[in-house]
Each structure stands twice: as structure tokens, then as C-alpha cells.
Amino acid sequence: MSHKQYTMYPNFIQHLKKHISLTDDDIQVLSTYVKIKSIKKKEFLLEEGQICKGNYFVEAGLLRMFYINGKGTEQITQFALENWWLSDYMSSMMQSPSKFYLQAVEDAEVVVVDHQKQEELFKKVPQLERYFRIMMQRAYAASQMRVKYFHDYSKEENYRQFVLLFPQFVQRIPQYMLASYLGITPEYLSELRKKHPIT
Amino acid sequence: MSHKQYTMYPNFIQHLKKHISLTDDDIQVLSTYVKIKSIKKKEFLLEEGQICKGNYFVEAGLLRMFYINGKGTEQITQFALENWWLSDYMSSMMQSPSKFYLQAVEDAEVVVVDHQKQEELFKKVPQLERYFRIMMQRAYAASQMRVKYFHDYSKEENYRQFVLLFPQFVQRIPQYMLASYLGITPEYLSELRKKHPIT
DNA sequence: TAAAAAACTTAAGCTGGTTTAAGAAATTAA
DNA sequence: TTAATTTCTTAAACCAGCTTAAGTTTTTTA
Fold first, then answer.
1. Do the beta carbons of residue A127 and residue A26 sit within 8 Å?
2. If you count residue pairs, one on A and one on B, with CB atoms under 8 Å apart, how many are there?
3. Which residues pair with B64 in a beta bridge?
4. Across the interface, do A142 and B90 touch by the CB < 8 Å criterion?
5. pLDDT by position in tens, chain A (length 199)
6. Burial classification of residue B1, based on how many CB atoms lie within 10 Å of its CB (0-12 exposed, 13-18 middle, 19 or more buried)
7. Residue B155 CB in 7 A reach of strand C
8. Environment class of B40 (CB within 10 Å of its CB; exposed 0-12, middle 13-18, buried 19+)
């Protein structure tokens, strides 16, 4: 009976267990602090101006984070697929209105950890403090590398690197979103693809 | 007598205490796990090809992180001044050779936490897990915002924003380093400064 | 299954920022 | 205090990537 409670988010539990040890009791407690949320393609978890209340784990599907820039066009800053966390940490830490949108690119199942209740949860299951330390360190490490790649390569090289490293991922997003993430116009991406067809 | 041991790094201890509570015993234990290191301007804490062994807290002075790009020129990715942590987290997590250099821009006092011994330290002073979770979350939040600013503003706007937000900081670094950090050539920065003199 | 909407392509002209090359000013070392 | 070195400036030619505008293809909705 007790494990029926977390068959709703097997990836989530498995991911936690990869980094920390949890008793069935821990999982029991945890399950009272998290919710699973199903969202349809194009639905929002967060919109500009709101204070970001949750930390979101992608159990299934695909999310994106973006903002609307000065010219009124969407600028994507991150994607999150299975087993990734996504949130506007500045907004939730500072309790300030977010500049970002969090939206489903595909129908998605998301595990929601309420930022407010997080402290309380950490007290009851202290290993989670460690788990999130590891997740944040990992995310920060990835972003240190991203800054490097961003400077290092031309937009064209950047595009080709990305397609090479994440081909499965490129299949799942429309090209204009890839262009936005890479910081180029769809027109220029189209030109690059013509110049160097990628199978 | 016991607090003589940490008058060597008052900022460090104060910073820890701002986020977690520590007994004198905790501090005693901690002090056996960290070292203070004085480095002169232009000395390195890490060079390309080495595995990053430490996590560095700037007690005093100013550090920079950079790499050598394809054209053979330095690209600065981060500065760290008093009360900031600096490390190549990817290199230390993956135990892979770093692509980066960590170097003193000014003479500096640095508190070194050995990445290898960190796990052991966390077992003895568990609150530190929380402290570093907060530090990593904060660093990651800042980098989420940085990606936004980077896309959002032209290089010129970026420069002016930076000078406006961190004037004291701009005073402490040579202009070619600011140019490198902003991802522009020193020549272009010079042109921008001529166009819009900032008192 | 037809019409509307969303996504992608093409091509020409334009601009923000680089490159190159030289000299001037400021800092550091002897 | 002089020489060496490092940092900063100027200006002209150049190019990666954008803008604009129009047309084509694919996906969604009715």
C-alpha cells in the first residue's frame, strides 16, 4: 500500500535515491510535501510578474523558461526535460516578481515542491538539504560551462555543437525555439541549416 | 585562546554565521579542515589542465576566473571579491582537467576548502551542507539572471549597466579585463567610453 | 477535409562590433 | 629617474548576424 503513494512519480523517487538514502518513512513524509501536477502543452507554471512559488521536477515531458525582451520577442533561457529541476530561484529567494515564464513545450508531469514549505521539509528529512546542495552545485557547474561555450563559439559553431551533443533533444523542439535558445533569429538558423545540412 | 584560531579569517566565519549557527566546537573542527592562503597579484590558484582541488572563499582581495579561447586571448568568465566563493565546480565534481585559470587580480587572502575533504567535513558539521546549498542556489540564481542580461542588452547597454551597478568594482579592475568580462574588445570599450564618458 | 494558424525558408540590404595597425599614456621594475 | 612593460586610444576596412518582406510548408482546428 505505502509504495502506491509514490508510483505517481517513480523518476522523482529514483532520482532522489541515486543521491541520498531514504527510508520508506522518509518517502512517506516527503509525499505529504510534494504534489504531482499534469500540465498540457503551452500551459504555464509561472508567468511574468508573479512570485515563483515552486521548485519543479520534470517527471515526464518538456518545459522551457523564457522572458519577453525589449523588442517584444520571446527569449528562451533554459529547457528542462525528464529528471531536471526548473525554477526562477531569484524570484523565489527574494520573493520578488519574476521576469520569466515557465511553460510546457510538451504535455508534462511535474513534481512540485513548494518553496515556502521547503524549510519545514528539510527539517523532517535532512538528507534533502544534501540532495539539493548537489542539484544546485550541478546546475551552477553546468552554467559555468555554458558561459564558456557561449563566448567561445560563434553562433554557427554553437548551433552545430548543440545539434551534435543533443540530437534527441533537437528532435523534440521546434526550430524557432532552438534559435531563440541559441540567441539567433529563426531566419539565420534556417540559413545555417541550408549551409550545413545535418542528416 | 580558541578564537585566536579564526581571527585569521573573520569574514569567513562571519559569513557562515549569517546563514547557519555554529558552536565554538564546530568552528574548532572547521578550522582543522580549512587553510588560509595568501596569494600575490598574478599568482594562480588553478591553471588549465589541472584538476580543481579547492573551493575558494575570498577573505580579502580580488580573484578572476578565465580561459584561453581559440584565438589565444583570455576570456574572463567571473570575478570574485570579498565574501564570494570561486571554483571550477565541473572540474572538481567530475575530477576532470579544468579549462580554466583562477588568478589573483589583487593580492588576496583566500580560505581554501579541499574538495576531497569536504564530504568528511559535512559529516562532522552537518549545517555546512545547508550553508553550501544556500551558496550554490544563490550562485545559480545569479547566473540565471546573468544569462538574461547577456541576451537582453547590447554590449553597449551591458557596459553601462555594469558601470552603473558596480562602480566601486570597476575602479578595481583594468579596463581590458572589464572588456574581456563583457565579451568585447578593449578597442570597442575605449570607443564606448569616448562616446559616453562616465564621470 | 478545408481553412486558419503556426512554423520555416529565401534573399537583399544594413549595422554593431571586430580586426588590424599604429601610437600615446600610465605603471612597474631596475 | 629612466627604461621596460603594460594599458589605453584612434581610425579605417571588414564581416557575422540582424531586419525586412514575401512566399512556402506544416500543423492545428472547425
1. yes
2. 95
3. B79, B103
4. yes
5. 444 445 899 999 999 999 999 999 999 999 999 999 999 999 999 999 999 999 999 999 999 999 999 888 999 999 999 999 999 999 999 999 999 999 999 999 999 999 999 999 999 999 999 999 999 999 999 999 999 988 889 999 999 999 998 988 898 999 999 999 999 999 999 999 998 765 4
6. exposed
7. yes
8. exposed
